[in-house]
C-alpha cells in the first residue's frame, strides 16, 4: 500500500473545504474551515430549475471548484489542475503526486463512492486522496461521510468518469504554498468585498439576493411542482441542512468566518455583517424545517411561511452584503 504520511484529517462539514484543508495543512498552512470558505469567497445563492429537473434546487455557494480557484489566487498558491478523457492518464495524474508524498484533490460524482450513504448524483463532490493499494483508494471526506474512508478503485474510476451536471473530466489538483506566503489576515477584506459585490449585483435574477427573493415567490408552488411531495420537499430541506453545507445553506459557515474575522479586524461594517448573517443562519434553518413539514403534511401554509421568511432573508442578506462591501472603502 502507498500512502502519504502525516495526513491531518479533521471533522469538517463541506467537501471542498475539507479537501482544501487536508492539502494545505500538508503544506504547513493551517486555517479553519470557515476561514477557508470565506477566503475562497464561497458564499452565494442560486435558485436552479429547468424542464429536465425533477424538482428545484436551492444552492448556497459558488459553483464547484470556483472556491478552490479563488482561494489559490488570493493566497498566492500554485494550483495545478489536470483533466483528461483518458482513464489511464487520469490514474497516472493521481498516483504520481501520491508516490512523491503529496495528497491530491479529486472532483467526482459522489453517487458511485462505496461509502456514500445517500445515493444521489452530485458531480461537484470533492475529496482528498492520500493513498491506494491493489484494491482500494484511501480518501478524506466530510465528517458526515466518515472522515478517513476507503472506496474500491473500480468505484473511484466510475465516480471520476461520470458525466452530467457539475462534473469535470477526471479532474485532479494539487496545491503548493510559496516560501513567502502572504498573510491570510491581509486577504480577508478582498475576499469579503469580492463575495459581497457578486451577491449584490448578480447577472441574472436566479442568483444572489435577487435569487432568494425569487425563491420566496416560487417556493409557495412546490406542492404542485411534484407528484411526490413527501419525498421531494424533505429531500430539499435535507440538502439545505445536511448535505455538506454546515447547516443553514452555508450561512453557518459564513457567519463563523465573519466572527473569526472580527477577532482580527476592528470594523463596524464587519460587525454589522456578522450580526446579520448570524440572524440569517437561524432563519434559513427555519425555512428548511418548514419545507420539510410541508412535504410531510401537505401544508400549503408552511410553504407560505417559508416564502415570507425567504423574502425577509433577501432583504437581510442584501443589507449584510451592503455593509460588508463597505470594508473596501
From TrEMBL:
Domain DUF4872: 155-324
Domain Butirosin biosynthesis protein H N-terminal: 14-142
Pfam families on file: BtrH_N, DUF4872
Stated name of the protein: Lantibiotic ABC transporter
Amino acid at each position: 500500500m502507498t500512502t502519504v504520511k502525516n495526513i491531518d484529517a479533521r471533522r469538517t462539514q463541506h467537501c471542498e473545504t475539507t479537501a482544501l484543508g487536508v492539502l494545505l495543512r500538508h503544506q504547513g498552512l493551517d486555517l479553519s474551515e470557515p476561514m477557508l470558505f470565506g477566503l475562497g469567497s464561497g458564499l452565494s445563492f442560486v435558485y436552479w430549475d429547468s424542464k429536465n429537473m425533477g424538482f428545484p434546487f436551492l444552492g448556497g455557494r459558488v459553483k464547484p471548484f470556483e472556491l478552490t480557484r479563488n482561494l489559490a489566487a488570493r493566497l498566492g498558491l500554485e494550483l495545478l489542475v489536470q483533466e483528461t478523457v483518458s482513464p489511464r492518464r487520469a490514474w497516472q495524474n493521481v498516483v504520481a503526486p501520491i508516490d512523491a508524498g503529496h495528497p491530491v484533490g479529486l472532483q467526482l460524482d459522489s453517487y458511485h463512492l462505496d461509502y456514500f450513504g445517500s445515493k444521489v448524483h452530485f458531480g461537484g463532490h470533492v475529496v482528498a486522496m492520500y493513498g491506494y493499494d491493489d484494491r482500494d483508494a484511501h480518501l478524506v471526506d466530510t465528517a458526515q461521510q466518515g472522515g478517513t474512508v476507503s472506496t474500491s478503485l473500480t468505484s473511484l474510476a466510475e465516480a471520476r468518469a461520470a458525466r452530467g451536471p457539475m462534473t469535470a473530466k477526471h479532474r485532479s489538483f494539487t496545491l503548493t504554498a510559496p516560501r513567502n506566503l502572504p498573510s491570510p489576515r491581509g486577504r480577508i477584506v478582498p475576499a469579503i468585498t469580492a463575495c459581497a459585490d457578486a451577491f449584490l449585483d448578480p447577472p441574472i435574477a436566479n442568483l444572489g439576493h435577487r435569487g432568494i427573493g425569487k425563491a420566496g415567490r416560487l417556493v409557495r408552488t412546490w406542492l404542485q411542482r411534484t407528484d411526490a411531495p413527501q419525498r421531494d420537499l424533505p429531500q430539499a430541506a435535507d440538502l439545505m441542512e445536511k448535505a455538506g453545507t454546515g447547516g443553514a445553506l452555508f450561512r453557518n459557515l459564513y457567519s463563523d468566518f465573519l466572527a473569526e474575522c472580527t477577532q482580527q479586524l476592528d470594523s463596524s461594517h464587519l460587525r454589522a455583517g456578522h450580526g446579520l448573517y448570524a440572524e440569517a443562519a437561524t432563519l434559513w434553518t427555519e425555512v428548511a424545517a418548514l419545507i420539510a413539514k410541508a412535504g410531510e403534511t401537505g401544508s400549503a401554509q408552511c410553504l407560505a411561511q417559508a416564502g415570507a421568511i425567504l423574502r425577509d432573508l433577501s432583504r437581510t442578506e442584501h443589507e449584510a452584503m451592503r455593509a460588508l462591501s463597505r470594508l473596501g472603502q
